[in-house]
Specification:
single chain, THDP-binding, binds thiamine diphosphate, two-stranded antiparallel ribbon, 2 domains, 5-stranded parallel β-sheet, binds magnesium ion, thiamine pyrophosphate, Rossmann fold, disordered N terminus, alpha/beta
Length: 415
């Protein structure tokens, strides 16, 4: 039986140095005493608690009937168990996508659990794993795939690429390659919403979600923004996608207190830990945090414990992570877990799920075909949207600034 997503308050996780022996049972939610977040009596929840042998952490996540899932995987078509589709693999290695592509496999429950609760006016700020956040927010698959391919039909006309998904229409404020860089942008967006509501007296209850990783929580911008957001009670949710690794650096080696959620109360906002491999649990926590933000009651820090099934990027041979750790998390694939929940609770039949998978394949194939056939941007686009002194762009062999050469803006200059 899958764990109920009914949100219940759990006790703060025990200390990382605790000698309490790990409870390896598939314990579902334990009803415990109210959250001690700075005396807050807000209904914020962490949903489950099982000690992972791999994390040494106290606040960890529930393994969802791993034996059942393992069996199902073996029984099903082995091709569907691959961690990358033919399109994903071939398109990148054929050079169809440029730069690094950072996959999101394994972390899907976080993006979906949060973003699907938003309205169009709400904002999302992401990292370089942004293509899934963009899809969750409604950016069409064609526009996302074309951006990955660097084509004019991409959501940034091919100028952003994999790490810079942006859509004004969908209020996706970016993809950021520098870690932590998106957090102040998100904080600014949340400030805008508050300003509109309280100063401009506009009807505005928009909320901003800021997604970032565990490694990023050791970056100064994170702390500065938590402080400002708490001080001004900004309508924002800070969502840490704690996949236990920052490229090849283990979270436990890099952070003085690996329980990131605790940093919320230190700044005067609720901090919550949730099983980020379970979309229904993430959704329960997300509902509460988004509601608090929308009511004007301020920010929340949510730590979602998750795992990436691939290396840091497609260029990462992924040799540092323990195979046993990888195998452990592979049994908790959030998509497989949701399927199981839907079937067990008669919310969907096998054939309905197969039909959905088929539909997804069609959407992906259509997006790949569309992106492949789309035109590349004109060279003249190179200088558009560049916030720099154009005179600083460079001097050509004739001693003149390149930007002064009309051929350059026409896209016909030899550079
Ligand atoms: C300011 C800055 N410093 C260093 C880097 C190099 N870098 C790229 S990804 C990364 C690790 C980030 O890990 P985490 O925040 O956990 O995100 P994850 O990749 O696990 O999603 C680092 C250090 C960077 N992009 N930006
Ligand atoms: Mg990480």
């Amino acid at each position: 039986m899958a764990c109920s997503a009914t949100a219940k308050i759990v006790q703060p996780p025990m200390s990382i140095n605790s000698t309490r022996s790990p409870d390896k049972s598939d314990t579902c939610t334990k009803l415990l005493r109210p959250s001690a977040f700075l005396g807050s009596n807000k209904k914020l929840f962490s949903v489950s608690k099982t000690i992972s042998p791999f994390s040494r952490r106290s606040a960890t996540v529930v393994a969802v009937s791993s034996d059942v899932i393992k069996k199902k995987k073996v029984e099903s078509n082995p091709v569907s168990n691959l961690l990358v589709t033919k399109e994903e693999g071939l398109m990148y290695y054929r050079g169809k996508m440029f730069g690094f592509v950072h996959l999101y496999n394994g972390q899907e429950a976080v993006s979906t659990g949060f973003i699907k609760l938003l309205g169009n006016r709400d904002c999302v700020v992401s990292t370089y794993r942004d293509h899934v956040h963009a899809l969750s927010k409604g950016v069409p698959a064609r526009a996302v795939m074309s951006e990955l391919f660097g084509k004019t039909t991409g959501c940034c006309r091919g100028q952003g690429g994999s790490m810079h998904m942006f859509s004004k229409e969908h209020n996706v404020l970016g993809g950021f390659a520098f870690i932590g860089e998106g957090i102040p942008v998100a904080t600014g967006a949340a400030f805008t919403s508050k300003y509109r509501r309280e100063v401009m007296k506009e009807d505005c209850d928009d909320v901003t979600l800021a997604f970032f990783g565990d490694g990023t929580c050791n970056n100064g911008q994170f702390y500065e923004c938590l402080n400002m957001a708490a001080l001004w009670k900004l309508p924002i949710v800070f969502i840490v996608e704690n996949n236990l690794w920052a490229i090849g650096m283990s979270h436990l080696r890099a952070t003085s207190d690996p329980q990131i959620w605790k940093k919320g109360p230190a700044f005067g906002m609720p901090g919550v830990h949730v099983d980020g491999m379970d979309v229904l649990k993430v959704r329960e926590v997300a509902k509460e945090a988004i509601t608090i933000a929308r009511r004007g009651e301020g920010p929340t820090l949510v730590e979602c414990e998750t795992y990436r099934f691939r290396g840091h990027s497609l260029a990462d041979p992924d040799e540092l992570r323990d195979p046993a750790e990888k195998a452990h998390y592979a049994t908790r694939d959030p998509i497989t877990a949701l399927k199981k929940y839907l079937l067990e609770n008669s919310l969907a039949s096998e054939s309905e799920l197969i039909a959905i998978e088929k539909k997804i394949e069609e959407v992906v194939e259509d997006a790949v075909e569309f992106a492949d056939e789309s035109p590349v941007p004109a060279r003249s686009q190179l200088l558009e949207n560049v916030f720099a002194d154009p005179r600083g762009f460079g001097i050509g062999p004739d001693g003149k600034y390149r930007c002064e050469d009309p051929k350059f803006t026409e896209g016909t200059a030899q550079v």
